[in-house]
């Protein structure tokens, strides 16, 4: 529901992906409630509808918090459903970082485009356990053409709203470009039909 009581369809659909235990649910819960929950059911996969303000505009986001890693049909359905992706690893878990690039390739394959994403290095409060340098995260994000954030869902997470907002902006930008392209191509189709009709009239007269 929005402030005028109408149910709106989502302006952006965001899917959170990453290896089990990296803190996907913790990030989503922090974004939605500004709280940190230490233990969150690791098998729970949920979609949340969230009304928020981005750049003075009221927007509706739908967020799919995934669980599990297998590339199942169900997962593929989620990938198709989403407009943008938050890819999460934990700075104290090297394997979670190593899995990100193949995940991105999988998303590109399913969506048949270079998908929009934000790369998140979570658990920066565990600095003493760091296994992935910030510079490595930055380089990977550059290679994938997405924004990069190091954050901690447990320690305040001040920049967590910003990373969701940034992905929303990117999604909106691409949607605008795509709809302009569609409008242009349908105007072109009308012109083509018109020209064909004119040619026909010309050739029969
Ligand atoms: N220290 C620390 N622990 C975290 C952070 N985020 C999540 N966790 C913990 O990591 C574990 C897995 O978190 P969860 O959100 O369930 O991960 P998910 O499987 O990716 O959804 C839980 O025990 C959380 O309390 C963080 O920023 N810092
Ligand atoms: Mg979870």
Task: Please outline what is shown here.
This protein is of the alpha/beta class and 205 residues long. Helices cover 44% and strands 20% of the residues. β2 (46-54) and β3 form a beta hairpin.
Number of extended strands = 6
- Beta fraction: 15-25%
Strand order of the largest sheet: 2-3-1-4-5-6
Q: What coarse outline follows from CA principal-axis ratios?
A: elongated
Largest sheet, strands/sense/barrel: 6 strands, mixed
| Helix content percent band | 40-55%
Pfam families: Ras
Catalytic activity: GTP + H2O = GDP + phosphate + H(+)
InterPro entries: P-loop_NTPase, Ras-related_GTPase, Small_GTP-bd, Small_GTPase
GO molecular function, one term: G protein activity
Using brief descriptors, characterize the structure shown.
205 residues; alpha/beta; six-stranded mixed beta sheet; 6 strands; elongated; binds guanosine-5'-diphosphate; binds magnesium ion
Description:
It catalyses: GTP + H2O = GDP + phosphate + H(+). This protein has 6 helices and 6 strands, in the order E-H-E-E-H-E-H-H-E-H-E-H. The protein has 205 residues and is an alpha/beta fold. A hairpin with a 2-residue loop joins strand 2 and strand 3. The model has no long low-confidence stretch (mean pLDDT 90).
List the helices and strands and how they pair.
Blueprint: E1 12-17, H1 24-33, E2 46-54, E3 57-65, H2 73-81, E4 84-90, H3 94-98, H4 100-111, E5 116-122, H5 134-143, E6 147-150, H6 160-204
Parallel strand pairs: 1-3, 1-4, 4-5, 5-6
Antiparallel strand pairs: 2-3
The structure holds guanosine-5'-diphosphate (GDP) and magnesium ion.
């Amino acid at each position: 529901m929005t402030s005028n009581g109408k149910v709106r369809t989502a302006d952006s659909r965001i899917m959170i992906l990453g290896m089990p235990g990296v803190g996907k649910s913790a990030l989503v819960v922090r974004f939605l409630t500004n709280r940190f929950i230490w233990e969150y059911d690791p098998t729970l996969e949920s979609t949340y509808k969230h009304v928020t303000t981005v750049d003075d505009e009221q927007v509706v986001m739908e967020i799919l918090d995934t669980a599990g890693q297998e590339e199942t049909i169900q997962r593929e359905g989620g990938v198709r459903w989403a407009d943008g992706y938050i890819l999460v690893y934990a700075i104290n878990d090297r394997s979670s970082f190593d899995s990100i690039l193949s995940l991105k390739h999988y998303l590109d394959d399913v969506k048949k485009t270079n998908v929009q994403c934000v790369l998140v290095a979570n658990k920066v409060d565990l600095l003493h356990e760091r296994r992935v340098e910030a510079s490595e995260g930055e380089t990977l994000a550059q290679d994938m053409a997405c924004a990069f954030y190091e954050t901690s869902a447990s320690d305040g997470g001040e920049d967590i709203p910003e990373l969701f907002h940034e992905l929303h902006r990117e999604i909106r930008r691409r949607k605008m470009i795509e709809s302009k392209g569609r409008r242009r191509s349908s105007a072109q189709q009308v012109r083509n039909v018109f020209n064909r009709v004119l040619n026909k009239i010309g050739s029969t007269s």
